[in-house]
Design a protein that fits this description.
Layout: E1 3-8, H1 13-24, E2 31-38, E3 41-48, H2 51-60, E4 67-73, E5 88-89, E6 95-103, H3 106-115, H4 128-136, H5 141-149, E7 154-162, E8 165-174, E9 179-182, E10 213-216, E11 228-231, E12 236-241, E13 244-249, E14 254-255, E15 260-261, H6 277-283, H7 285-295, E16 297-298, E17 301-302, E18 316-321, H8 323-340, E19 343-348, H9 349-352, E20 363-369, H10 375-386, E21 391-395, H11 401-404, E22 408-411, H12 424-443, H13 449-484, E23 489-494, H14 498-513, E24 516-521, E25 538-542, H15 549-560, E26 565-571, H16 575-580, E27 583-587, H17 596-614
Parallel strand pairs: 18-19, 18-20, 20-21, 21-22, 23-24, 23-25, 25-26, 26-27
Antiparallel strand pairs: 1-4, 1-10, 2-3, 2-4, 5-6, 6-7, 7-8, 8-12, 9-10, 9-11, 11-15, 12-13, 13-14, 16-17
């Protein structure tokens, strides 16, 4: 969790870094801080609570400087107080560090440093880093950082500034993501604010072309200043300064810095006309699915991305995922079993990583992750690779660790998802899994051209059906939210492909509206949970016209007989359903039944959003959460 950023350029670094933190706060947002280097001093500003508190502080007490580092936190070691905010300083306050990740041996290092006289001011694991650097710093930043990383265990990305190195940032990556960004060159324009006595390049280097240089945990925070970027690899150190960017390994071997153009635009990471990122991302779903489908069609046929795996030989698939991605995987199993007749296991990554899974021939692990940085999923796929099981990643962020550590990548192409509640990535995951199932079926000779054509026709109509559903359900959803936003419990029931929808609908309501909610397979409800039903309990029943429709209606009857308040999700014009339910959220009918869950989830996303708004919850940054769960 946590996000880090850094900037060297000609603009006021404080303002640049506040915008960068704004774009990283999905990674954690319980406190924030920055450190700017100015006139041989480090200017520190930190604030507990929302980022607004930090920017207010910066407005009240401005900090000059065109070079600095910044951090937005999701507390692990120590509560979100100002003392625990990053950046953390060395004892003489001449070195500042921001860090994302966990230093596992921090207790031992802390004791050692304290014995040498270091005084710690926070409860964080991070604070050992500036103290360690200071203990070996003799005017050569790279040497000091290299000596320090040799002492650290754990997963980390951190950045350091030095009071006597006015235009220099040293950034390190080992296990947590870190990108280096570079702006266009501005020949002839000397950077404003450059200290006259700047002798920052003490370790050699080539003359600078005076581009703005940045570091960040994720691409949006590099925008709009950077036009190109490189992904720092584990075990590498980036040295940013007047000399440009130099990359070396932890042991000092030089690495060629290869920058690639950034393809995401600043608009893609703004809310546009929407009041929240979640609302924007829900609305983007038709376009997301259209883009994904376009990328997989050539001349009216499905094209298969090369995954570097012989899919004909795969007879056992393991899906690894957490949270919403795990819900998508549950439907992925249905797709693969039914279309490609492959045996599928769906594993929660945090469970898989501590089992001793069997590595039989013909097994393929598919890691499913929006961010590609979820620690448990990374650990799970590393375990699989250690057992020589091939791994493929289904990810949204293709520069992520999960993508880079996989043999093949199935990109979701959903664009940046910033709201903590996953919405467009979920429907993209379902769609990508269905397309993957068709690809495996085709490889195994189980997809005849006629079935393929029918599937493509159904897929082509899907984006329009998503748009139709979002527009068509809105008033019923808002009305139900008016009636039930005060309810502290909600139950979601679904069968077959709609069971994951029930789980996902419940997760959305829990995470952004803080309503206790449970999703059940409807046939299981009578085995205990039905005891919860009272005349006050909203029960949301997923009843599209699929093969289990009649069974589902019987389950709805059971709730009705116990006076539950029933909200049905079904097709507009379904009289039978209307007669059974107190409210109906209408959804379009997918041409292929397997795609129906992509439509049924839409009113549940909007319902969670509306209930959250009515309960005055922060939709994009719900309490206690972070977008990427990069800790165990
Ligand atoms: C989704 O709304 C959640 N915030 C969360 O469950 C998320 O899906 C989970 O942490 C997995 O993230 P990933 O897809 O980035 O791996």
């Amino acid at each position: 969790m946590c996000g880090i950023a850094g900037y060297i350029g000609h603009k006021p670094a404080g303002q640049v870094l506040i915008v960068a933190l704004e774009r990283l706060k999905y990674r954690g947002y319980d406190s924030a801080g920055l450190a700017l280097v100015d006139e041989g001093e480090i200017r520190l500003r930190r604030a507990a609570g929302k980022l607004k508190n930090l920017s207010d502080k910066l407005d009240a007490v401005p900090a000059p400087g065109t070079c600095g580092i910044a951090h937005t936190r999701w507390a692990t070691h120590g509560p979100p107080t100002e003392a625990n905010c990053h950046p953390h300083l060395s004892g003489d306050e001449r070195i500042a560090v921001v860090h994302n990740g966990i230093i596992e041996n921090h207790e031992e290092l802390r004791r050692e440093l304290q014995a040498q006289g270091a005084v710690f001011r926070s409860e964080t694991d991070t604070e050992v880093i500036p103290h360690l650097i200071a203990s070996v710093y003799r005017g050569k930043p790279l040497e000091a950082v290299r000596a320090t990383v040799a002492r650290l265990r754990g997963s980390f990305a951190f950045a350091v500034v030095f009071a006597d190195q006015p235009r220099r940032i040293i950034a390190v990556r080992q296990g947590s993501p870190l990108l280096v960004g570079r702006g266009r060159s501005a020949p002839g324009s000397a950077p404003a604010g450059r200290a006259r006595n700047d002798r920052s390049v003490t370790d050699g280097g080539t003359p600078s072309d005076q581009r703005e240089l940045l570091i960040a945990s994720d691409i949006p925070a590099l925008l709009p200043h950077a036009t190109e970027m490189l992904v720092l690899e584990d075990g590498q150190i980036a040295d940013l300064g007047e000399h440009g960017v130099r990359i070396t390994t932890f042991t000092g071997s030089p690495v060629t810095a290869v920058f690639k153009p950034i393809e995401i635009t600043a608009e893609a990471v703004s809310k546009g006309k929407h009041d929240t990122f979640m609302a924007k991302e829900i609305a983007e779903q038709p376009e997301v699915l259209r883009r994904l489908l376009d990328s997989r069609l050539r001349d009216g046929r499905l094209v298969e991305p090369d995954l570097g795996v012989d899919l004909r030989a795969v007879n056992h698939l393991v899906f690894l995922a957490c949270g919403t991605s795990w819900h998508a995987a549950l439907n992925g199993r249905r797709y693969l079993e039914s279309l490609a007749r492959v045996h599928v296991e769906v594993d929660i990554s945090s469970e898989y990583r501590y089992r001793n899974p069997i590595a039989a021939g013909g097994t393929l692990v598919v890691s499913i992750s929006q961010s590609g940085e979820t620690a448990d999923t990374i650990a799970g796929q590393r375990l699989a690779r250690a057992k020589f099981i091939p791994v493929v990643a289904l990810v949204n962020v293709v520069t992520s660790t999960i993508a880079r550590e996989s043999g093949g990548v199935l990109p979701l192409l959903a664009g940046p998802e910033i709201g903590v509640a996953s919405t467009k990535a979920y429907t993209a995951q379902l769609f990508a899994l269905w397309l993957f199932a068709l690809q495996v079926a085709k490889a195994k000779g189980l997809l005849d051209p006629e079935t393929e054509s029918k599937a493509i026709a159904a897929a082509l109509r899907l984006p329009g059906q998503v748009a139709e559903t979002l527009a068509g359900c809105e008033s019923a959803v808002a009305e139900a939210a008016d009636l039930f936003s005060a309810a502290n419990d909600t139950v979601f029931l679904g069968r077959g492909g709609e069971h994951p929808t029930a789980l996902e609908g419940a997760l959305k309501l829990k995470e952004i509206a803080y309503v206790h909610a449970s999703g059940y397979p409807a046939g299981e409800f009578k085995h205990g949970p039905i005891a919860q039903v009272t005349a006050k309990l909203p029960v949301i029943c997923l009843c599209p016209h699929d093969q289990l429709y009649e069974k589902m209606l019987s389950n709805v009857q059971e709730v009705r007989a116990r006076h539950g308040r029933i909200i049905g999700v079904g097709h507009a014009g379904d009289r039978q359903l209307k007669d059974l339910c107190d409210h109906v959220f209408p959804v379009a009918r997918a041409d292929d039944e397997m795609l129906q869950p992509l439509l049924s989830i839409l009113p549940l996303q909007r319902y969670a959003y509306h209930v959250a708004r009515r309960r005055d919850c922060d939709v994009d940054q719900p309490r206690n959460l972070a977008k990427s769960v990069t800790v165990e």
